[in-house]
Design brief:
This protein has 181 residues and is mostly helical. The protein has six helices and no strands.
């Protein structure tokens, strides 16, 4: 059975270290900036390059969500993966994994607690950023729901869970190189 102490330890690690603050700040920043970029990109391009004539369609709320998905999948997920990939490898290099595994903790429980807390962290970050993006899209466009919004949000969340599992797996097989004396 999974030990609750391991989960508490992992949650405290994200709260006490800058990892949690960096991830939360990044997800919230892009949750706020993406709808604004989707709404005002035509005006920004017109101001930056007035000599270029273009005929883009008027932005709508789907453009806002497309911008959210692009920024979340390209920047937020990559930073999240970097943090998650180092989770077990960092404990290997510090030697703290030996202390945990000598306390009658199975390797499965240790690794699964990393995955579980990573999933919980991603879910909370994703929910908060989706709510903020939906709110700001509603402010800018007067609506925030389009056909297929909840399916696309669910699939995006599922992609994040898959990447969490992949990051934990890579962290397990990664070997941190020790400096040679």
């Amino acid at each position: 059975m999974l030990k609750l102490e391991l989960i508490k330890k992992e949650i405290k690690e994200y709260i006490r270290t800058p990892k949690g603050i960096i991830l939360a700040s990044l997800f919230i920043f892009f949750a706020l900036s993406s709808p604004a970029l989707g709404r005002y990109m035509n005006e920004i391009i017109a101001q930056v390059a007035p000599e270029i004539i273009f005929d883009f369609p008027e932005p709508n709320l789907k453009d806002s969500w497309i911008q959210v998905y692009k920024n979340m999948s390209s920047i937020c997920i990559i930073v999240y993966l970097i943090v998650m990939t180092g989770s077990i490898a960092q404990e290997k290099s510090k030697g703290s994994i030996l202390l945990v595994l000598t306390k009658k903790v199975s390797r499965f429980d240790f690794i699964f607690s990393k995955f579980l807390v990573g999933t919980l962290l991603y879910t909370v970050l994703f929910l908060v950023s989706s709510i903020i993006s939906g709110w700001y899209t509603n402010v800018l466009f007067g609506a925030f729901i389009y056909d297929g919004l909840f399916v696309s949000l669910f699939l995006f969340w599922l992609m994040g869970i898959f990447f969490t599992a992949l990051a934990v797996f890579v962290s397990v097989i990664a070997r941190h190189q020790q400096p040679q004396p």
